[in-house]
Fold this sequence. Notes:
By secondary structure, the chain is mainly β. It has helices spanning 50-55, 130-134, 197-200, 204-208; strands spanning 14-15, 27-30, 37-41, 43-46, 73-75, 89-91, 99-109, 112-122, 125-128, 179-181, 184-195, 212-226, 240-241, 250-258.
Amino acid sequence: SNIGSADAYGNKPIWTDGGSFKDLRPFRTEEGKPLYSYYLVKSEGVFRSQGEIDNYVDQQGNKIQPNAQVGDLKFVDENGDGKINSSDKVYMGNAMPKVTYSFSGGLQWKDLSFNIMFQGVGGVKLFNAYKFVTLNESLSSFNRSREILKAMNGPSDEVPRISAKDANGNFSTESDYYLEKGDYLRIKNITLTYSLSNLLYKCGYLKERKSLLDVSFSVDNLATFTSYSGIDPEVGGTGLDGGQYPVSRTFSFGLKMKF
Length: 259
């Protein structure tokens, strides 16, 4: 689709909106690409030895990441200019799910009935910007996640080296380190209902009026199955998760009466 006319030099408009978190702006939209696509620097895990850092050089033998230390993220020099910057960004999909689904079922035995509903999405990518504040030690005004302890056990692809300056840009670089699969399956609702209507029918008058009395117990958002490391994979919007407040697990009791 066309998002605007070209300028005098033939350049089509490019949008960078879609949301931001702190200094992270991971989105870009241009003609021929999905709306709010992730536009990020690729990473290849972390450097596991000084030799890896020393051997990651350009054609002149200069280090591509001169500030890197063991445990820092290794970024891909996509354009081959010997340095890591915004020119190395590439499109990496968006948050639109490839499939959205739900299914439900129920059982009934005498006066007892049971109903369950599942809901989920597949083929979703989320930008977990919450890592920026919960793992980034170059910030000073946020509580840290306990996941930060993984960086104490040597090089880890899950949590890169933690430092007060973040000279390698582990967290300040808009990279696919923040990009995660957001697929999930959620037990959306379970309802258990017991009918006491037969007790009412001992009274002929209530039986004639077809009165009813049902007692029910219901749970919403009982459990979520996902590999996403954020608080809740149901981020919505453009997929930017800055610490989305999770859906609540709700317990309800109900009484339905008809006389």
